[in-house]
Amino acid sequence: MRAPAGRSWWALGGRREPVPAGQHPARPEGSLVWLHVAGPASASGLRELAARLREEQGVAVLMTGARELLPDQGVLRDQMPEESLGDLRSFLTHWSPDAVVLSEGEIRPTLLGELAEREIPVLIADAREPWLAKGSESWIPGVMRRSLVNVHRVFAIDAAAGRAFQKAGAQARRISVSGRLEESSQALPCLEAEREYLADLTVARPVWFAGGVPQAEEDAVMAAHRHALQLAHRLLLVLMPEDPARAGPLARELEEQGFSVSVRSDEQEPDPEIEVYIVAEPAELGLWYRLAPITYIGGGLSGTGLTLNPFAPAALGSALLHGPRPGSFGAPLGRLGAARAARAVASIRDLSEALADLLSPERSARLAGAAWGVVSEGAEVTEDMLKTLAQLIAERQAATGGGR
């Protein structure tokens, strides 16, 4: 099999220059798990898995794949070696992983054969349909089947994916129809005392939050707020511009338009007469997602794409509104949209009407509940994979005498 149509080699792992010998990052002592991100669909789930491996099991994590799909911090990063024995042996000798997690369905026969020779267990996460990675295509009959024999376990996203892997040669007893890995959606933190204080201050008022709003979308947000104020005259908008430096100038512009405004960075509060509370600190996103039953994420209406992760408000119970341009969040927005767990708006009028509709607590709660279901659906498979990896690492360490 070949890579699915429309899937570029860059998406499958990223173009690269060969890494000269001795120029890999240093390998730390102790256990190490290698995660390979085959494409955007598995990137967020593997980032979450990497974070939990480090935080909960204390193991080092190596990640390979297209650079833009990998986390900036917390993991070791390297380039995926070519499908040649020389490159692979040099790579594996240097990193000596205790376990390897491939993703989606990218099959590398030479790599899997060498891992089997070294008795390094392999899992496939977010498994969809198996395909031979570019450069691995072969006229040799049965190359896919022989490769999949070396896989310890396949975590298929659904029954169809499970059947595809079994048909390609994976053993049925090693296939789990488990669903997707959990996305990177751990609840953003906030100071509980501050949340309680602001909740008491706004207890009698409906609140909505517009976050990461580019300047080009400020008029749309304010038009929607003006419309909604006719239905709920005590409605409070908490507005976070994409550029924190816009807070002061934006406050002055809105005051000139007749809005009652206060600015958090000036140590002002959302008093009862305030209609717009301007905030600018991204570290406080968790606070506003908790306080506001409705969140609009900017960038998708007039910008190039969403400026904030749509799963973050979903994880904290806030109903989501967004524009039609997903930017780098196409996969999570697609899942939210398929579950009717978010509302897409294509114009100022759409945003105004959607906001007015979600002022109904019942409707906003229904949307937020559906979103929470999407966000949390991968938790079980992530837990299963963490337990499996912990067991495999322990077994390998015992077999090798605990070296490296």
Automatic annotation (TrEMBL):
It is found in: Cell membrane. Its main location: membrane. It catalyses: lipid IVA (E. coli) + CMP-3-deoxy-beta-D-manno-octulosonate = alpha-Kdo-(2->6)-lipid IVA (E. coli) + CMP + H(+). It comes from the Bacteria. The lineage of its organism: Bacteria, Pseudomonadati, Pseudomonadota, Alphaproteobacteria, Rhodobacterales. It holds the Pfam family Glycos_transf_N. The keyword Transferase applies. Its EC number is 2.4.99.12. Involved in lipopolysaccharide (LPS) biosynthesis. Catalyzes the transfer of 3-deoxy-D-manno-octulosonate (Kdo) residue(s) from CMP-Kdo to lipid IV(A), the tetraacyldisaccharide-1,4'-bisphosphate precursor of lipid A. This is 3-deoxy-D-manno-octulosonic acid transferase. Keywords: Cell membrane, Lipopolysaccharide biosynthesis, Membrane, Transferase. Pathway: Bacterial outer membrane biogenesis; LPS core biosynthesis.
